[in-house]
Design goal:
Oligomer: heterodimer
Distance between the termini of chain A: 59 Å
Strand order of the largest sheet of chain A: 2-1-3-4-5-6
Number of helices of chain A: 19
Structural class of chain B: alpha+beta
Radius of gyration of chain B: 19 Å
């Protein structure tokens, strides 16, 4: 077989939607620009696929990035990229929707366009090409990709697509030019048309102002959100892949948003406010989803499941429904306490897999800076309970390179890892130790400041500093009493730096992307394909400095490339939080006290309780 | 109750691998109210065993698996229920009850009937070629295996050959002791005809999996 896993490209999966193409007005193809197994695990696309196909006039299909083996054949034989359901070329579609989940897929977006024979630059496209529209978390700063997209959809996809499709049908009927259509689309709330907004820069390279191309183009783009999650689209018949995908299970999104304003976390800010789904709604969906897919596992999805108000009720009813069907319930992102351990004992098989804690920082001082409301006591208590319950393996996640970090904070990572080991020996008497000892896996990733967080002003470390800090961590761990039982892993530094460049990047980066792509960079999220030298060369050739985007100090009043977007949380709130971080002051979570972040104006979710 | 299920797998679904086909049927059962028996133990799994793995890229009109179910449902109803849960390209053709003590599907398999279709060219094989094949002495074929190479007389593994317009039908050994890939037979025949296999692309279709009845004749695996 010339191509590995041909099942990635043949479609035909159970519950995939095939319509009569002559009976629809709009052909939409939804793309996750990474390999099938990753893309098929994404809930957002499943929701939008279901929504579009519920429209009688629209047929929505799917496409994923061809793996490098097929990519090569397609280029050699000039085979245009095709959609899974109809196997028709992407170029024939009305819309190509691309979800942008992480920065390291940016070159894969160019690969998708290129293999589809769609001009990479938006202004070179005609009505022979689809409208290329982007969505997902990275569109909270879409600027590095501005040249490649016709439209960005800012916020949650359930709300404005119907309006856009109707406008599109009308425009095509009236014979509008592409430019006329895009001009009209720029007035739909939540839609950003980069070609309708010019950016002017100061001499130092920062943004001076945003200039709409026409007077009636809005100068601010407001994020869209779903106010009532019990009254919106949610798939009941998701596609069931033939091959094993990363999320081989039914996904039940129990709520959106997070009450805990961790200052490094973008998801915790841009999905505000917390909106919960009702237990009745979730149980109804769970039963239908399991019946319609035959999956053996269901996972409750949210940013912090322990914060869901009716978790106890939901779980006991779900266990009732799942037990006779031999369905496993998976519960990621749970706080480790007596309740969650009891739940895990009830729902998971006897094998005690490892437990995960994410203190994110080693010292209490640093956890206060990042506003991670987890204390050493919480961790020790959780670990004690877990060890009493028979668990012997613990994973600890930390970040290196957080703002205002000192060697003491780094040493805190080693100290905390050691403390967890010591807790095991204090808790479990020698004769009861299952494997004789405890296994702690400590992992660090490098902190990448993201737009629309209090740390959007933060200076990021360079690659050398990152590596030095990882070495220090290793050194401190070796110095600990229980170092034999601590395994230490750290994340790549080069990729983190590049991620940092694009996260807070501007339009000047699009030429670097084009250059790197022309050198053959694709699948940058995959270590086996990531080629740092090519990237360094691309930056050098285009005369763009990493440091402008990463290590540079940003003043409080700097206009950021993404500041034309209103995510709901105000810049004043972020700045307030940034200043509190500098002083090590914590902010209470939304349940305890409203921090006045600005979301209350949407009048939904936790803000109206 | 023990059942033997016969299904077809055609079109692009020929690219679905064996393990994925098994997982596919497990999920399909879970979408119906047919309750498949689970094994005991730490990680229970459905009691289901496939007759033979079908090569990736080969279509088939006759694949089989045995499965144990809890309830005593009507056979016809089960066929319909499963077919309501099939992706296009999979079809349940038949279900038969089998004796609890019956030899399982995998051990029953004796041979496969294949159709070879030269879809692009004129037919490079002729009835005369089959005669030549039959009357020739032992024809050695060497295939690479993990431990090196093995050589065997291919004629021992070919039971029937029948000419057809676009190619031929054959019945070849598919038992666990001596499974012959039809591709090897095509190679040997074209070599005998003095033709270059590269010039004659072909499709392989498995028509059925066969067992031997009490008199030694080949019959379908679902033959009662």
């Amino acid at each position: 077989m010339a191509v590995e896993k041909p099942e990635r490209y043949i479609g035909h999966e159970f519950n995939s939607v095939v319509k009569d193409k002559d009976s629809v007005d709009v052909r939409f193809v939804m793309c996750f620009p990474d390999v099938y197994e990753i893309g098929m695990s994404h809930l957002g696309i499943a929701i939008l696929y279901d929504m579009f196909n519920s429209f009688a006039d629209t047929w929505c299909e799917r496409v994923y990035s061809p793996w490098p083996d097929l990519d090569k054949i397609m280029r050699e034989k000039k085979i245009p990229l095709f959609a899974l359901e109809s196997q028709e070329p992407i170029k024939n579609f009305d819309f190509l929707g691309i979800t942008i989940q992480y920065e390291m897929v940016y070159t894969n977006i160019l690969q998708i366009l290129d293999l589809s024979e769609i001009p990479l630059l938006s202004w070179e496209r005609t009505w022979d090409d689809p409208i290329v529209i982007g969505g997902g978390p990275c569109t909270s700063n879409p600027e590095p990709l501005a040249d490649f997209f016709d439209i960005f959809y800012i916020g949650e996809g359930e709300t404005q697509y119907r309006v856009l499709l109707d406008m599109y049908k009308e425009s095509r009927k009236n014979g509008d030019s592409r430019e006329e259509f895009l001009h009209k689309a720029s007035k739909i709330p939540g839609l950003y048309v980069p070609s309708m907004l010019d950016v002017e820069y100061k001499e130092d390279g920062t943004v001076s102002r945003f200039v709409p191309k026409y007077d009636d183009v809005p100068v601010k783009v407001y994020k869209e959100l779903v106010k009532d999650l019990d009254d919106t689209y949610y798939p009941e018949k998701p596609v069931v892949p033939f091959i094993k995908v990363t999320q081989e299970r039914v996904v039940l999104e129990i709520m959106r948003g997070c009450i805990r304003g961790c200052r490094f976390c973008q998801a915790g800010q841009i999905y505000r406010p917390v909106r919960e789904r009702s237990v009745e709604y979730l149980l109804d969906k769970a039963v239908k989803l399991l019946d319609n897919t035959g999956q053996e596992e269901i996972t409750l999805s949210s940013l912090s499941s322990s914060d869901y108000s009716h978790l106890d009720e939901l779980l006991s009813k779900l266990i009732e429904k799942c037990n006779n069907k031999k369905v496993n319930i998976a519960l990621p992102s749970l706080r480790i306490d007596q309740f969650s351990l009891d739940v895990m004992n009830k729902i998971q098989d006897v094998k005690k897999s490892s437990l995960t804690f994410a203190p994110e920082a080693g010292s209490q001082r640093m956890r206060d800076i990042i506003n991670k409301g987890l204390t050493e006591e919480d961790i020790v208590n959780g670990a004690t309970l877990a060890f009493k319950g028979g668990w012997t393996r613990v994973k600890l996640y930390f970040m290196l390179g957080l703002p205002f970090e000192t060697d003491e904070d780094i040493k805190g990572i080693a100290d905390l890892s050691n403390l967890v080991c010591a807790t095991f020996y204090d808790t479990v008497p020698k004769e009861q130790r299952v494997n004789g000892h405890v296994q702690v896996v400590t992992s660090t990733s490098f902190f990448v400041p993201k737009p629309f967080t209090p740390f959007q002003w933060a200076q990021m470390d360079d690659a050398k500093t990152f590596i030095d800090k990882a070495e220090k961590t290793k050194h401190f761990i070796i110095g600990e009493l229980n170092q034999k039982h601590i395994k230490y892993n750290w994340h790549e530094a080069d990729v983190s730096v590049l991620e940092g460049v694009f996260a807070r990047g501007d339009r000047k980066l699009s030429k670097v992307l084009l250059n790197a792509y022309s050198k053959g960079c694709i699948f940058d999220a995959w270590t086996e394909f990531y080629d740092n030298d090519k990237w360094l060369k691309a930056f050098e050739e285009e005369g763009v400095e990493f440091s402008f985007y990463t290590t540079r100090k940003r003043e409080d009043d700097e206009i950021f490339p993404w500041d034309f977007i209103e995510c709901g949380v105000t810049k004043e709130h972020f700045l307030r939080e940034w200043h509190k971080a500098q002083k090590g002051e914590v902010t209470l979570n939304c349940k305890d006290r409203c921090a006045g972040c600005g979301m209350a104006k949407f009048e939904c979710g936790i803000c109206v309780r | 109750m023990k059942l033997r299920v016969k299904f077809s797998k055609t079109g692009v679904l020929k690219y679905i691998g064996h393990l994925d086909t098994m997982r596919y049927f497990q999920k399909a059962f879970r979408r119906t109210d047919i309750r498949v028996k689970y094994s005991a133990g730490f990680s229970p799994h459905m009691i289901m065993s496939f007759a033979q793995a079908l090569g990736v890229g080969v279509e088939s009109l006759g694949e089989y698996f045995d499965v144990e179910v809890e309830d005593d449902q009507e056979i016809a109803g089960m066929v319909d229920k499963l077919n309501a849960q099939m992706a296009e390209g999979f079809k349940v053709i038949d279900i038969v009850k089998i004796d609890d003590k019956a030899t399982n599907a995998m051990a029953s398999v004796a041979a496969s009937r294949y159709e070879i279709d030269f879809y692009k060219t004129e037919n490079p094989v002729t009835p005369a070629l089959f005669e030549e094949f039959r009357s020739a002495g032992p024809i050695e074929y060497t295939k690479k295996v993990k431990t090196g190479e093995i050589t065997f007389n291919i004629k021992d593994f070919v039971f029937e050959l029948e000419y057809r317009d676009k190619g031929f039908y054959c019945v070849v050994d598919s038992s666990s002791a001596g499974n012959l890939k039809p591709k090897f037979l095509v190679e040997v025949l074209l070599k005998l005809a003095g033709k270059d296999i590269e010039q004659y692309p072909f499709h392989i279709l498995r028509i059925d999996l066969l067992k031997r009845d009490s008199e030694g004749r080949f019959v379908s695996l679902d033959h009662e």
